[in-house]
Backbone:
């Protein structure tokens, strides 16, 4: 059993090298999610191979790599969404806040409350905007109308969509545009007050304008949440993230500060990928 | 394939498609038109004064003054008939024995035919059965009865090679020279004044119980019985079916047992309904003894077993059609599996589940075979809600069959039979229509 103490905070912070325009986050930089020799299998197939990584709290970590390299699988392992796939199992260890995510006594429902997720395609429920946001809080026992309204407003404001929907909270969420729907999904996740936000290619189904809004939103949320974002778009990774992980065929090839990884990659494979020599 | 052939193929397929639709529409018309036109006749028809008498006596309905004036005016014309009969009976007494014997039997036949038209005649014993207490109540049948009175039906069996041929002999000729002879032209001439046909709207056909096994009255007990049976079946089958579907789609692990259960379910959906009827009798009544003999409860349970596979299948399809992303979204917010099913998946699957339910409800309402042995009786009064556990009930589907095949006077009450068919078709149609409306409403709510 590995605990978070075995990975020193000092070593971890070395992965963050911030360019001058990005500020350091106060109270951030602790090991939040730690993988050690962590593998994920679909039946016999090893989709993620012995990954060891340290995700720092309140910073944005991007995961890049070609399709099928296991980056989404890795992301979905953190809040155990892979449990939906019956043949999926893991080895090694994955710690969240020092506790084993795949431990025998881990409550995956509690874990998912702390580790929120936004998916590739916007997936609001076929309910009103209010009910969408209130879904999580209600689930966790909040029933007071006034309190719910407060949470809904706060979450929508945080997700920078309040001004667009404040006058039609009772309308069906499916009537919103794709970009609005995705920000609504972010708001819905924020409403349960998670510590970690997992974004699985959140802009791949959106147009450039909506994408820009989501990226701005990530910048807003940086410093409040530990954010992990899987993306195919390397410009996006370099724009929004503090550190970047490059996956290739299930292997974590390189994990470094974004500024460093994109300008001075250590591994030749990373260099080939970010310069577009293969894909 | 070149463009020409492709176009010809396209066109010929269009032609075949349109053709088959026309054939279907025609078949539908052939079925529906007689049902509607004859079925409506049970409520809207030309009723005679006898009908009004019957309504007054058996159901305490109708305008008393109107009836009294009708009866009085009818009796004025009937008096002459009674007079002729009296004269002839006196004449009969005075006849020589041989002649008297010959005329007596003919006269008795004539009297019977006359009773069918006008009801009991003076000097008759009061009839036991309600159907003999009144003359012809429906004007469209009066012509038939009049023909029976005017002509004696005989069979020509002289040629052994072919089947006997029916031919008619005029009774007026048979009684020529007696004092009965004027009766026939008199009745022919005054039938309308004696029966006083009037356009009648008899809503009681829907709300009344029947009198003398559907001879008079309505079909309310059947409608109510059908309603009880179908609702009872839904009460058992719907929750059970949805729960089973949730288990199959969300909880069951793929494997031998699961696939066996699923194929068993599919097979069950194809089992003929009479088999369910026998099963219901053997299992619910003989083995479990849910009731001493036939009861609504036993029938509902049997119907529930019959429609269960359909409901399970429909619910399964509906649940599987819910986008996986809803499930992911809910789980990622820290929802438990059960919560996800209850708050996201079932609401989203509701239109499909309900459609399956209502289609099954229609099927339960229309099935005959499962209730023959478990719930249905041919004649009975409407039962109260408290009696459903122990009492059998008449039901539309079974009574349609019964009236068509086993009723002792089936030919005389075709209008009741058609009325029942129309009622059943309408009920099923309304159920399906409500399913469509419900589905559209919920879908609209789900789709923004």
Residues:
């Amino acid at each position: 059993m590995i605990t978070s103490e075995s990975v020193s905070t000092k070593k971890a912070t070395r992965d963050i090298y911030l360019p001058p325009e990005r500020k350091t986050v106060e109270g951030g930089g602790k090991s939040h999610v730690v993988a050690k020799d962590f593998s994920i299998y679909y039946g016999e197939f090893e989709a993620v191979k012995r990954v060891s990584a340290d995700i720092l709290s309140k910073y944005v970590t991007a995961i890049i790599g070609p399709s099928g390299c296991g980056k989404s699988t890795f992301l979905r392992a953190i809040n155990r969404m892979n449990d939906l796939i019956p043949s999926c199992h893991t080895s090694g260890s994955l710690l969240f806040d020092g506790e084993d995510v795949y431990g025998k006594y881990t409550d995956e429902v509690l874990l998912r409350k702390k580790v929120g997720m936004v998916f590739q395609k916007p997936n609001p429920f076929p309910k009103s905007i209010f009910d969408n946001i209130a879904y999580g809080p209600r689930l966790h026992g909040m029933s007071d109308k006034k309190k719910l309204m407060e949470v809904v407003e706060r979450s929508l404001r945080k997700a920078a969509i309040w001004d667009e929907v404040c006058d039609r909270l009772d309308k069906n969420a499916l009537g919103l545009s794709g970009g609005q729907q995705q920000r609504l999904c972010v708001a819905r996740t924020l409403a349960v007050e998670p510590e970690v936000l997992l974004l699985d290619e959140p802009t791949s189904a959106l147009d450039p304008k909506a994408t820009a809004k989501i990226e701005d939103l990530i910048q807003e949320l940086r410093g409040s949440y530990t954010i992990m974002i899987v993306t195919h778009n390397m410009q996006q990774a370099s724009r929004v993230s503090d550190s970047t992980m490059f996956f290739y065929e299930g292997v974590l090839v390189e994990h470094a500060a974004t500024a460093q990884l994109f300008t001075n990659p250590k591994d030749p494979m990373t260099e080939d990928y970010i310069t577009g020599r293969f894909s | 394939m070149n463009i020409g052939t492709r176009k010809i193929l396209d066109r010929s397929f269009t032609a075949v498609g349109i053709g088959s639709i026309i054939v279907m529409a025609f078949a539908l018309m052939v079925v529906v038109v007689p049902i509607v036109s004859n079925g409506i006749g049970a409520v809207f028809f030309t009723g005679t004064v006898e009908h009004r008498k019957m309504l007054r006596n058996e159901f305490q309905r109708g305008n008393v003054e109107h009836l009294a004036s009708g009866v009085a005016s009818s009796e004025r014309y009937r008096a002459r008939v009674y007079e002729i009969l009296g004269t002839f009976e006196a004449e009969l007494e005075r006849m020589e024995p041989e002649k008297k014997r010959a005329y007596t039997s003919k006269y008795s036949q004539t009297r019977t035919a006359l009773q069918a038209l006008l009801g009991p005649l003076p000097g008759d014993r009061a009839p036991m059965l309600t159907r003999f207490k009144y003359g012809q109540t429906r004007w469209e049948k009066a012509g038939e009865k009049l023909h029976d009175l005017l002509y004696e039906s005989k069979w020509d069996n002289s040629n052994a090679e072919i089947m006997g041929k029916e031919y008619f002999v005029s009774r007026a000729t048979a009684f020529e020279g007696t004092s009965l002879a004027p009766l026939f032209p008199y009745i022919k001439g005054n039938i309308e004044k004696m029966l006083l046909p009037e356009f009648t709207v008899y809503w009681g056909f829907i709300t009344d119980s029947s009198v003398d096994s559907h001879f008079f009255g309505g079909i309310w007990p059947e409608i109510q019985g059908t309603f009880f049976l179908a609702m009872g079946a839904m009460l058992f089958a719907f929750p059970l079916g949805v729960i089973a579907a949730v288990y199959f789609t969300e909880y069951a692990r793929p494997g031998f047992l699961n696939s066996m259960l699923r194929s068993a379910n599919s097979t069950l959906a194809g089992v003929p309904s009479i088999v369910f009827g026998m099963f219901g009798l053997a299992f619910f009544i003989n083995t479990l003894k849910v009731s001493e003999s036939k009861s609504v409860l036993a029938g509902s349970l049997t119907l529930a077993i019959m429609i269960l596979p359909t409901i399970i299948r429909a619910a399964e399809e509906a649940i599987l059609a819910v986008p996986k992303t809803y499930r992911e979204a809910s789980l990622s917010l820290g929802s438990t599996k059960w919560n996800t099913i209850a708050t996201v998946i079932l609401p989203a699957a509701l239109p499909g589940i309900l459609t399956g339910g209502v289609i099954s409800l229609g099927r339960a309402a229309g099935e005959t075979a499962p209730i023959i042995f478990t719930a249905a009786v041919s004649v009975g009064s409407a039962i109260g809600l408290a009696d459903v556990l122990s009492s059998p009930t008449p039901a539309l589907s079974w009574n349609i069959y019964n009236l068509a095949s086993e009723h002792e006077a089936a030919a005389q009450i075709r209008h009741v039979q058609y009325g029942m068919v129309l009622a059943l078709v309408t009920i099923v149609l309304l159920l399906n229509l409500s399913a469509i409306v419900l589905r559209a409403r919920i879908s609209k709510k789900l789709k923004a």
